Amino acid sequence: MSGTVGGHDLAPGFADPVLGSQSAFRGVLEAMSRPGRVVTLSTLPTAPAPLDPATAALALTLMDFDTPLWLDDAATTDSVTDYLKFHCGCPVTGEPDTARFAIVADAALMPPLDAFDPGNDLYPDQSTTVILQMKSLAEGPRLRLTGPGIERDAIATVDGLPAGFLDQWAANRTLYPLGVDMILTCDEAVLGLPRSIELEG
Fold it and tell me: What are 53-87's pLDDT values in tens digits?
């Protein structure tokens, strides 16, 4: 479904919202349950720049009027905010620690992970999930992943992580079962980083 907001046309969402969301949900579920595995989403919407199609698909699938969203400066454009409000109905917040989801289109603009909500003892699932766009999920520095969902270890090749990310992730992991979850995206692909996973460069 497409529409017009503020006098300009919006990029359409999924051609079939139900089937598109179901397909994307299965993809992100596989990525989060099998950390280190790059999953290519088969059903994608048209994404407003600078969002990747996979990022837009996750937004349309996971976000609604009950999920406050934080956007980095690169993603804070009229076309993106209008698209997300129209298709998802999600409120946009200016404070990362009040967001259930965050979209970071430019890794250099990502706040430290401890700026986001890690959840609380009663509701650890209410932490922020950060969707971080990468330059590549096929080339670049190698990461070794260990932890739940991985038989021995897994190797991910990613390009575009923020400076100091591994130290931030190590601190985030010590909060478990609290902590931030992350989904890395690039073009049509996603890679899950649950808070329980250990990363080594």
Answer: 999 999 999 999 999 999 999 999 999 999 999 99
State the Cα angle at 189 between 20 and 57, rounded to 5°: 30
Report the b/e string of 132-159 with b at 16+ CB within 10 A.
Answer: bbbeebeeeeebebebebbeeebebebe
What pLDDT sits at residue 11?
81
pLDDT per position as a tens digit, 102-146: 999 999 999 999 999 999 999 999 999 999 999 999 999 999 999
Burial class (CB within 10 angstroms; exposed 0-12, middle 13-18, buried 19+) of 26: middle
Instruction: Look at residue 23 and tell me if it is in a domain.
Output: yes
Say whether 147 sits in a helix, a strand or coil. Answer: coil
Q: What angle do the packed helices 53-62 and 17-33 form, to 10 degrees? A: 100
Domain count, the chain: 1
Residue given tokens 């890690």 in the structure block: 118
The CA–CA distances, whole Å, from 46 to 3, 10, 14, 117, 148 equal: 13, 10, 8, 30, 34
Domain interval for residue 165: 11-195
DSSP lists the bridge partners of residue 71 as 103
Calpha distance 92→69 (Å, rounded):
5
